[in-house]
Specification:
single chain, 535 residues, alpha/beta, six-stranded mixed beta sheet, 14% strand
Length: 535
Amino acid sequence: MTIEQKVGQMLLFGWQADEAKGPSPSEGYPGARPETAATEVNTHARILLEEWQLGSVILMGRNVESPEQVARLHNSMQALCETPLFFTTDQEGGHVCRMKTPFTMMPGAMPLGATRSEDLAYRSASAVSRELSAIGINLDFAPCLDTNNNAENPIIGVRSYGEDPSLTTRLGVAQMRGYQETGTIACVKHFPGHGDTAVDSHLGLCTIPYGMDRLLGLEIAPFRAAIEAGVDVVMTAHIVFQALDPIRPGTLSPAVVNGLLRKELGFKGVAMTDCMEMKAISDNFGMGEAAVMAVEAGIDLLAACHTLERQRTMRQAILDAVKSGRLTESRIDESVQRILAVKEKYRLAERRRVDETVVMQVVGCPEHRALEQEIARRSITIARDTAGSVPLPQGRILVVGPEAPAGVVANGIAQLRGLADADVPVQPIGPEFPEERLEAIYDAAQTANAVVVLTKHREPWTITPQDEEAQARMVKSLMNLGAPLVVAAIRNPYDIKRFPEIPTYLCTYGYTTPSLMALAEVLTGMVEATGELPV
């Protein structure tokens, strides 16, 4: 290989529509607002593959139209490359799924944590792996091994199995095996741990101040187990770990990558970055300098998911660093050898084409849908019911909450009880809580036999985040109106901290349709809630 080809193997880039200018409009959150679709091999993609000879691409939501389209895209892209591509995406389950309906969007990590089942964790990852393989995805950025022990964590939350590192280890390793044993390369993240932060590294640089004893026992333990179990790719976190390096975030720190990950934990696979366009990196170090620092730290694969000019800056900076002698070509060779070894291990040269005609025999198949619903059912958790309000009383049930989830729950209750829609009315509200809407809700609650409120946390990637304080005031007001009140947190289980006096509180850990239907089944007494709080 030429030096340009070698550096190409070390780059994992996404592509935007050709008319897109500058950074993603949501600055690292492509789902926050619609982006122009880029579902074919356009000019941006051709620069990556033909001119720069990249070894890896990532599919974001803007690149996905349908399962068959992704399969065609995979075949087209692989045909442009001399060395087979890492064709990658984020398909963690739950809300971090680039492949949405008709794909099976398995419940994420925390619902699995609530089931406590390694078997379900393994089967879930295996099913996702089979669907990804059918469309050509060969590397999935999952599972997430962060132990979420900070209730204020804005970005991990239900992407974690829970706050117990032993639970994270058991289920995380089970999922890793589920992916890898069915042909999908797993990538554990975000090393050495993103669970105890109150800052989202998409939006800023944060610091974990704890000593090594605490890090080894809590944050690092699941990663150590995954490495011992044979994981092939590890993704680093853009977080400063003061006990290891008080200045540089993990992605750019030799102490974290070469020291802790390579020498102490013995990892011999591919070390990769989280997206370098996240503000923790781009706002503090600059794209070119950060790219060189990452390679100096021991990183093999550098990700940049959006912007052509930033990608160009990163690539050129690495080439210039080799030319100047700051980086040696032997250092580049080390990374390329690791990357090629993983590609050979998973026989990617033999998997350059997928059969586009059989994709829908696998994607969203009945077996996977049944597993999705089983996990959702077994995850629903009754955290508290001192009022004995579950199952719901007979009569008129008012459902309050975000419009789409509230509609699913109300329809589920009506169907399960054989009621008319008018007997289970919906009062939609959120993310804002205007007085006129609140008055309508309070009026409707006066004639209800029970009120179900779906609460949602402040998701930072949404255009208008949920007003959690106003939501809490509404819950407390409804509790004082007299009708039995059931509150269900449909994402983070921590919502109850804002209304700790509530007598009946359930957790779904997500608001995909299977989880909401499982909630309706529990509320009507059709299914017993067996989930256990993982936090």
